[in-house]
Design brief:
Length: 204
């Protein structure tokens, strides 16, 4: 089991063990689509009503907490992989020059994209998503891809392209592609200037 999913399981088990308490804010909401107004009642709730109420809200809180946790764990996991694999792709020669700018400018943009992907997917879909582990070396563009482990098809691709401006020098263009348009569109993340001299190959 992947690390981020293992951590998620621990959180869910902890919640299920200690999740018998119902936050007071939920007492004002609907209980299984039946509105219960405490202020309008002169008689105390029956034991069966309380049991049904607790059961309904335990299930609802559990479902909401599980969804939030899956999304948060997914974003955290992918963002960490994005950082690690980007520096792996850069190699020490390029990392020493552009590493700080990448962390300050490009990585936050990648995080925004990951957050959007997570918000558009269900928890069931996210647990099937994983990150590729081999950035392209040499002159290849691939940094990492997010793919569905069940279908083995990519969901998003994060790349960096070398651009040579004859008068101004070389830049690294970071962008991504999405499955929704069959990966044809380039979605811009940002550029980092290198130098007028040709940059070394990736991973060198």
């Amino acid at each position: 089991m992947k690390l981020w999913l293992t951590k998620l399981s621990v959180v869910i088990i902890t919640f299920m063990t200690f999740g018998l308490y119902i936050p007071p804010t939920y007492l004002d909401a609907e209980a299984c689509d039946q509105e219960i107004s405490i202020n309008d009642r002169r008689e105390p709730f029956s034991e069966s009503t309380i049991e049904n109420f607790n059961e309904c809200y335990n299930e609802r809180v559990h479902e909401e907490a599980e969804t939030i946790t899956v999304h948060e764990q997914f974003v955290s996991h992918v963002l960490e992989q994005a950082k690690q694999q980007s520096f792996q792709k850069f190699g020490p020669k390029i990392s020493n020059i552009v590493g700080d700018e990448f962390l300050a400018v490009i990585l936050p943009k990648i995080e925004e994209v990951i957050l959007n992907l997570a918000s558009e997917a269900t928890a069931d879909e996210l647990v099937k998503y994983e990150v590729t582990e081999k950035p392209a070396n040499g002159y290849g563009e691939k940094i990492f891809h997010i793919y569905d482990q069940q279908t083995n098809k990519d969901v998003a691709r994060f790349h960096v392209h070398r651009v040579n401006h004859p008068r101004n020098g070389h830049t690294f263009n970071f962008h991504y592609h999405l499955v929704k348009d069959q990966f044809e569109q380039h979605y811009h993340l940002g550029d980092i200037y290198w130098d007028k001299n040709t940059p070394p190959k990736w991973m060198s």
